[in-house]
Design goal:
- There is one protein chain.
- It contains 3 helices and 8 strands, in the order H-H-E-E-E-E-E-E-H-E-E.
- The N and C termini lie far apart (81 Å).
- The protein has one domain.
Length: 156
């Protein structure tokens, strides 16, 4: 009986150690998503996740479609693809097939690329503003003395 318990422990340890990429990478990955301007809506796989800047925790075994949207700007669409992680090849040294199978099933064999998304959003020139909706503020540190003053902002 004691021999059977020792064999069970040995087999369990071998199975766990064989999945190098799963142990090192885990089954999910954090992806940092930023935009200029900030506060753009982030939609991942058709689910709104929040606004930029955002750190999204995504499953490694799936490809993901990331949309960054902000009114007045063109929508950016980025595809995150799973690339094979170098840790996956560690299975060749430590027992191979079992670890490779575990890494493939859990998604630990992948790393999402790109690992970080930073987009500068381009203004959508097709979008027009009504005069009622538009407010333009220009801040000038040294005004031209020939200009006519028409108003001033004050703190409340």
């Amino acid at each position: 009986m004691k021999h059977l318990v020792n064999v069970f422990y040995f087999v369990s340890i071998v199975l766990l150690l064989n999945s190098c990429a799963t142990i090192v990478n885990g089954t999910s990955q954090q992806v940092n998503i930023t935009s200029t301007p900030i506060e753009a809506k982030v939609i991942i796989d058709n689910e709104q996740m929040g606004n930029t800047p955002l750190i999204a925790k995504l499953k490694r075994k799936d490809n993901h479609i990331v949309k960054i949207e902000l009114e007045g700007y063109k929508t950016e669409v980025i595809t995150l693809n799973g690339e094979t992680s170098g840790w996956f090849f560690g299975n060749c040294l430590f027992g191979g097939i079992i670890g490779m199978g575990i890494d493939a099933l859990t998604g630990g064999m992948y790393r999402l690329e790109p690992e970080e998304i930073n987009k500068t959003l381009e203004a959508d020139k097709n979008q027009t503003l009504n005069d009622d909706d538009a407010l333009f503020i220009k801040i000038v540190l040294t005004p031209n003395p020939k200009w006519e003053k028409i108003g001033q902002l004050t703190r409340k």
